[in-house]
Amino acid sequence: MRLVQLNVHPLKSGAIRPVSSTTVLPRGLTDDRSWMLVDGDGRLVSAREVHRLFHVVADTPSTDPSVTAALRLRAPGHADLLVDVPRAAPVGVHLFSLDLQARPAGAAADAWVRAVLRRDDLRLVWCHDPEQRTLQPGFSQPGDHAAFPDSFPVTIASLASMRRLDDWIVERALELGEEPPAPLPVERFRANLVVDGDEPFGEDRWSRVVVGDVPFRVGKPVGRCVMATIDPATLRTSKEPTRTLARHRLVGGKTLFAVHLVPETSGRVSVGDEVRAE
After folding, report:
1. Percent of the chain residues topping a pLDDT of 90
2. How, if at all, do strands 78-83 and 71-75 pair?
3. b/e for 214-232, b at 16 or more Cβ within 10 A?
4. Which burial class, exposed, middle or buried, applies to 87 when counting CB atoms under 10 A from its CB (0-12, 13-18, 19+)?
5. What stretches of 98-241 show up as alpha helix (H) in DSSP?
6. Known Pfam families for this protein (predicted)?
7. 3-class DSSP state for residue 188?
8. Single pTM value for the model
């Protein structure tokens, strides 16, 4: 197998930032999901609630070397915003059921995201200490940690599985007398690593993955949420891929696609690297 895509999401639910090479840390890919938006109660606000977040482009020096601050935010119709490393005292935030601490980015950043996303309760926060967060019991080990992903530090998806899913979607549409849709892009699943060269859903049997020289432990399959049904370009929602996943990949009440990984060490990975699965 080969690594064919590397994707970083500096702002949780923001636009995907493809890179050709990056450093893997115990917490995940450098800068991945280090920033997130919260509401007035400190609770996560994602593209599940505000689809326009998909159009907010967040870059760091690791995703764009021209960036001269800790974070650069861009959105259509708005001036770019540069955000320095926050120095304010940490505040309590809530990532689903997790109570964590994060540093607020400040009034200028809050004003920018409120104007772009048209919500006056939004705040931008930064994960200053990824080690504060432990991972899901039963699927992690002591010391495992992450910044602000939903569950685990890294996700990996297979293009072979994506092609099979697209075939199933067309088959289902024809059965129902619907116009077959265009293939869905693998980006719908917002995976960090995308590989090709295995059989469809061969990842169901993986327990460990080595990308280049960097080893990862498989945590668990990824249970998909409503975000995969949102077209990141048009922001419209549809029944797919959830409808078809529920038919072919429903396990324990969850529709499964892609796999969570935990890095076992730090190192550099690049598009084109060999990928070995055990």
Report:
1. 99
2. antiparallel
3. bbbbbbebbbbeebbbbeb
4. exposed
5. 107-117, 159-175
6. MOSC, MOSC_N
7. helix
8. 0.96
The first and second tokens of residue 272, run together, are 């084109």
State how far the Cα of 234 lies from the Cα of 52, in Å rounded to an integer. Answer: 10
List of E strands, 131-247? 154-158, 193-196, 208-211, 214-223
What phi and psi values does residue 24 have, to the nearest 5 degrees? -95, 130
3-state secondary structure of 275: strand
Q: Is 184 helix (H, G, I), strand (E, B) or coil?
A: coil
In this predicted structure, what is the pLDDT of residue 33? 98
Is residue 137 packed enough to be buried (19+ CB in 10 Å), middle (13-18) or exposed (0-12)?
A: exposed
DSSP state for residue 53 in the 8-state scheme:
G
Compute, in degrees rounded to 10, the torsion defined by CA atoms 199, 33, 116, 51.
Answer: 40
Under DSSP, is residue 234 helix (H, G, I), strand (E, B) or coil? coil
* Per-residue model confidence (pLDDT) at position 15: 98
Beta sheet of 71-75, edge-to-edge order: 57-59, 71-75, 78-83
> Average pLDDT in the 27-50 region?
98
Mean of the per-residue pLDDT values for the chain?
97
